[in-house]
Amino acid sequence: MSSDTPSHVAHRRHVLLALASVTFGSHGLAQAQQSGSAAASSPYEPRRGQPGKDVIWIPTPDVPVLRMLRLAHVTPQDYVIDLGSGDGKIVLAAAREGTRAHGVEYNPEMVELSKRRAQEAGLQERATFEKADIFEMDFARATVITMYLLPELNLRLRPKILSLKPGTRVVSHDFRMGDWKPEETSSMGSSSVHLWIVPANVGGKWQLRWSGQTPIELTMDQTFQQFKGKAVFDKMETTLRETQLRGDAVQFAFTDARGVLRQFNGKVSDDRIEGTVEGVGAGARAQPFTAQRMGEAPAINGATTSRLDEVQTLGDQ
Ligand SMILES: C[S@@+](CC[C@H](N)C(=O)[O-])C[C@H]1O[C@@H](n2cnc3c(N)ncnc32)[C@H](O)[C@@H]1O
Q: Which of 29, 48, 144, 311 sits at 20 to 30 Å (Cα–Cα) from 273?
């Protein structure tokens, strides 16, 4: 049985929430006070399940940490931001592989601990940390986001994540992002790791041109990384097929007025798409095409809002 079945995920969620209620309760408070008085004599040691601003601290185990970096295809050219970085282990793992990484953590003691660990490992140039609230900071600089939060928190972050630069990869330990389907999910033991890629906005009306053809009007309707659409020419309209969007790389195809299947491969840059078009079986070489958006880009469906019932109805968060 896959480890990402609703019952496994419900169990993990239950553990996180149960731990939260224990640590936030009076027993947890007493423990926190004890550890506070001990802190004066010994270096700060975090306690698994200790309260955090919006979610408790539980570290991601080593195997899922590495898998998060692999799924996101992290390279030294990336800039990784871990949202709620705890003791810094994801940031340190990325830095160990030569990538610059930054942890954002609300608990100042955890931030100091992470900085100390980076220093001890000689990684302080690449592994940096700041004390901040993930809901108030700007993480536009990230090319990769990592997180181990809760489904509700992922949903609250989703509009901001979807406004990041197209192509930004997002990996989450255990929890998903409502109706936004991951590109890939890896399961290992009781953990799972999900990958999303921030899509470019291809919604709205476009004017498509390629060599010598009368311009064709395209209309695209996008929900997260999926889109459907139609092409209008010769007093008819036809649906787009083979649609795919990965970051700013877009593909679609349709059968033209002569009956040739035209396959388009392009890159989206704001209101313009540039790329090549091939005619399947037409014998001609690929030719350049451009598409220019006409009017405003509509918001991507689902991108600006999130409904808490997305978490409940899916049952596999
Ligand atoms: C489940 S732990 C994950 C730690 C680390 N990312 C990992 O995977 O090992 C979540 C962390 O988020 C921190 N946190 C909770 N709410 C936060 C907020 N609003 N801003 C920043 N950090 C927060 C907690 O203190 C905790 O360290």
A: 144
